[in-house]
Amino acid sequence: MAMNGFLPAMFAEMGARRRRMRAAFGDRGQALVEFLVLGGLAVGSLGLLVREGMVRAAPWGLALPFVFVIGFLIIDARRQARIERGADQDKSSARYDWVVLLWSFGCALLGVAAFVLAWTAQPRVAQQEDWQPPRSAVDVDISP
Predict the structure, then answer these.
(1) DSSP secondary-structure letter at 132?
(2) What residue ranges do the domains of the chain occupy?
């Protein structure tokens, strides 16, 4: 099934990859893999907004979804270029299935690591010297 253009070929391969994953892992296994990947990315980016100061502790977590998509596009561009050079489509697809799976798990683990680092980081406490109110704020006239 030859598709014209980068995006149609990529989406066709994504559908075929999901079918191959379902055949390899079963329905529940494939759903679990997708849940773990998407959960790791969501926790690593949106989870940083749970508590104040978490973004400061691991700001790279917010960039993970973009890095994931860019990496996925690069991997698929390499796969399509390999097929255009005359490589066997079935062998190339099977090989790149593992590359995509490892890339997905790597990004998900980085997302979980960003959340854990940010959650366990101690928030910065501003150094306060012995604070005293200004003299005009408190009336100190005490008379007998």
Answers:
(1) -
(2) 6-122
